[in-house]
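Protein entry
_____________
===
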Amino acid sequence: MNANVAVENIPGISLWNDPTVSVAARVDALIGAMTLQEKTAQLYGVWVGASDQGGEVAPHQHDMEEAVDLDALLPTGLGQLTRPFGTVPVDPALGALSLARTQMRIAATNRFGIPALAHDECLAGFAAWGATAYPVPLSWGATFDPDTVRRMAAAIGRDMRSVGVHQGLAPVLDVMRDARWGRVEETIAEDPYLVGTIGTAYVQGLESAGIVATLKHFVGYSASRAGRNLAPSSMGPRERADVLLPPFEMAIRESGARSVMNAYTDTDGMPSAADEDLLTGLLRDTWGFDGTVVADYFAIAFLKTLHGVAADWAGAACTALRAGIDIELPNVKTYGAPLTEAVADGRVPEALVDRALRRTLTQKAMLGLLDPDWNPMPAALDGADLVDPAALRGRIDLDGPENRALARTVAEKAVVLLSNDGTLPLDRPRRIALLGPNADEPVAVLGCYSFPQHIGVRHPGTPLGIELPTLRDTLAAEFPDAEITVARGTGIDDGDLSGIGEAAQVAQEADVALVVLGDRAGLFGRGTSGEGCDVEALVLPGAQQQLLDTLLDLETPVVTVLLAGRPYALGRAVEESAAIVQSFFPGEEGTHAIAGVLSGRTNPSGRLPVSVPRGPGSQPATYLGARLAQATEVSSIDPTPAFAFGHGLSYTRFEWTDLSVDVQEAPTDGEFGLAFTIRNTGGRAGTEVVQLYLHDPVASVVQPVQRLVGYTRVELEPGEGRRVRVTVPADLASFTGRDGRRVVEPGELELRLAASSADPRLTARVTLTGAERHVDHTRRLHTTVGQEPVARD
């Protein structure tokens, strides 16, 4: 077949361009017409940066790669454009024009008129200059609110599509296993059910806007030894099956995710990028995933340079392609000439190239990139003057009022009140001491994959592109009659003690001292949280604990506020702070959210997605520990957290009563129905987060003491009550048994309705009866929850 074949019903249109023909037939025809070089060209990306003048993109020379010659590459085609917006600061409208013009060039240069698929980061919002910076994933988990996260993701996706981007590299579905790991801020929680439900909602939102969501990192990245980035993973097969795989399994079943990214790490000597059992056997053959698998940046080359399982670039390409990686990112290194040569000399069959190519072209066809009326110019530029770039500046707003309102909603729902002796909410204080390194720092609310912290820091003369009010700004608006005095005290991690005396003096003269501590997001050691910013122990960075302890010695009430990317041990503050407010990089509206909680304008409803440790050296530890992971008399290390997973306080009170269970016994393929009443007995409206934990007292293999199997937010006015009904399928009691298969065993269970993993309120003791039953990836994954009003007292 050649490039000029036409179909009868649409004369002059090549078969692969005909939208009336099935996608499979179009793709088969196109593959049949391609040379080997044209095939492999669709299997890699080129890292580029959009032009701030609206011209074509410029290749980005990353420090791990040599320069790319676009002129030499484009005649055979190009699979992907890497991060056109997330590489340099560029006005969104001019970036969209630059991308469109580049797509025209790509399509015009190759024989088949195939454009590239453009991808960018969207971990906490579209990582583009001027785009809304939403809270980080750890804050998503703190909301316990999939619906709000779904709305946020849809907004992010719409912004990305509006400028011509097709794929987003999110969400991270790694379950947090060690809080010392720098990328904790990118994870959603330490619990697989919470990660799965929140992550799936994010994917649904992104995909609803037409963006290809990318599940990452598959699998085990977060289980690295000692919490080190890009280190070997220590997980066994049951931990992988029961803790780390379920979020991916749920998202693939329920979200419509169209891409998966491999993890960098190796497990028991097998790198994920080389693991055919994982990327093909489990992901595709068992779970039925039919999208694309993209390489984490440089992961294929790492098979040679870091893992030592390939002798040369061709060997790395063959290994990854055979395992199931379809697309090399961010640049061409192994899937270009080395792969072509390996096919030519028989080291890898061309059928494997065709397999990856078919998935890639299918995705492009479904995105409309092969249609005859494909137009790279986004609708946002319709009617614009494309000749004068200056006229385009400001035409596209990626941070409009609706986005900011949504960012504030997520941030408000994510703020966690850890402790409170009654000092909060503040009652019209006259003098506020605002202390600490994050008290007046605009970027303190941002994670490491936000544009200002990820890219903007390399362009110090460029404006941030978004408004980032500091906590000083928002407190001044929240308490207009108060005198607010600011003293930094110390830096984030400089260890400077010289300002602590001044901070103490300011605190002594105030009615309340707000000490704002935490992290600075960055990359590879340039921050205290973020990719490559791992820590040896969970102590507050720098001299922040010394500042905090000095303030606690005073008579002035101290409210500790944390703007951080991970939980930290807080020492004396756990018992001696008047209150502790925890926020995980809450995004551009985060300080408004925190100020609202401090004033009482917002009743806090966030819950901890990760435990807060009591001591700094007890890691790795999560609430999912088995009995031997709990405090014992035979070890001097006590891993009991200061604040447990799921914990969070409110300014009102809730009463849980009248538990009923429909049946005490059910078969191993049955279900249990529970109901109880929850009532707001306080004086103001509030939200209780009901959590359901399963405890299996006796099992054939060791189980966690408890694990989350359901949750819901219950919003109640003062005096209002709801009858909450939950249905718990027996499938949720399944685990990986001795033979490696997932099993539901007969026996007793406890279903704990709780306000946190450490605060059970009502417990149902039930029994599964009948034969042991094996289940697979089609099992039921969710507790169903319903609410109905009850009469007021």
Notes: The first strand starts at residue 45 and ends at 49. The two ends are 78 Å apart (CA to CA).
